[in-house]
Design a protein that fits this description.
Length: about 325
């Protein structure tokens, strides 16, 4: 039985597993750099976003094998050649056939494409509901023993699935969808993580761009190949409620003298159990704006007011474990 995980928080971030560097409180999500599922992405913009992020103090990078079948990892490589020693690097594998040998092969392909000898955090990206995940987690624990992986994560797991794999792996982090507009994880998963010393890493923390306040009263239209029309956050029945909530949140942001994006990130960062907030950025401008979101705190009253608006908005969202309605 693996020893229990112990997270240690400090101002520079959270120590997890055997990672040499702390998991930064803010991370750059690199999904869009994969060039698929976000309606196209210019590589030059991805490189500029990475440069802007590190200039703004972001050292936690989050990618996955699934983001363009290694394309996002390959975009990161020249950046890592220059900055590897400063970066907390996380990637994810899937092994859709639930085959540990396939997962090991994926991990090796990730290391090759990233141009690194280890990653700081390796997640199993999605559980497969009809398969035993223990052999996959045991394979990641083997990779940790071999030094290829320093900390182990799961993503999108239920409590039952986390409990199940705890006999074969010491899970250090759980990456899950969490924002002012998506909070199902508060019911069981985050309390389980708190109880077991597992660091929570939030994804889609800006509700895929909604919490920048840039969308109008009509359900937004996206270019072909952008996955957002299939995401619950853009559900046409829920959209009027979401738009109303975001309008109220914007007024709070104006009163604080800060952009809404700051309030959205700070709200997630303030929630129990959350060790790191992932935010995607597609260009230097977005990365610069997002990098400073934690710089100036918002008041406790504003955080409470945001929670109240969020409580009401979330009542109108579809009931499903993740924003994608994905259950592989
Ligand atoms: N484990 C999982 O299953 C999972 C699932 C989802 C995401 N993730 C991870 O979490 C990361 C973040 O989640 P996410 O990308 O889904 O959503 P997000 O961070 O909530 O939103 C990112 C999107 O919002 C827009 N945006 C960001 N900053 C902006 C700014 N300052 N001004 C205007 N627009 C801005 C950009 O898209 P546009 O400019 O096109 O609007 C960007 O791609 C991902 O990159 C990935 O690393 C993991």
């Amino acid at each position: 039985m693996p020893s229990p995980s112990a997270v240690q928080h400090s101002t520079s971030g959270t120590r997890i597993g055997d990672a040499e560097r702390p998991l930064g409180r803010l991370g750059l999500g690199c999904w869009a750099f994969g060039g698929e599922q976000w309606g196209g992405q210019a590589e030059a913009d991805s490189h500029a976003a990475l440069d802007a992020a590190i200039a703004g103090g972001i050292t936690h990078l989050d990618t996955a094998r699934a983001y363009g079948n290694g394309a996002s990892e390959r975009v990161l490589r020249p950046f890592l050649d220059r900055h590897r020693d400063r970066v907390f690097l996380a990637t994810k594998g899937n092994a859709w056939n639930a085959d540990p040998a396939e997962l090991r092969h994926e991990l090796e392909a990730s290391l090759h494409d990233l141009g690194v000898d280890h990653v700081d955090l390796y997640y199993l990206h999605w559980p497969k509901s009809d398969a035993d995940m223990k052999p996959l987690l045991a394979a990641i624990e083997d990779a940790r023993s071999g030094g290829l992986v320093r900390a182990i994560g799961v993503s999108n797991f239920s409590v039952e699935q986390m409990r199940d794999v705890s006999s074969v792996a010491r899970v250090d982090a759980h990456q899950l969808g969490y924002s002012l507009l998506w909070r199902p994880a508060e019911e069981e998963v985050i309390p389980y993580c708190l109880e077991h010393g597992i660091a929570v890493v939030s994804y889609s923390s800006l509700a895929q761009g909604i919490l920048t306040g840039k969308f109008g009263p009509d359900v937004p239209a996206f270019p072909a190949g952008d996955q957002r029309p299939d995401v619950a956050l853009f559900d046409p029945d829920a959209w009027p409620h979401i738009h109303d909530a975001v309008s109220q949140m914007k007024r709070l942001a104006d009163a604080e003298g800060q952009p809404l994006v700051n309030l959205a990130v700070q709200w997630v960062a303030s929630r129990p159990g959350v060790a790191s907030v992932l935010v995607g950025a597609r260009n230097a401008r977005q990365a610069q704006q997002n990098a400073v979101t934690l710089a100036r705190p918002v008041s406790a009253d504003t955080l409470e007011a945001l929670t109240r608006i969020s409580d009401e908005a979330c009542r109108h969202l579809p009931h499903q474990p993740n924003i994608f309605g994905f259950n592989p």
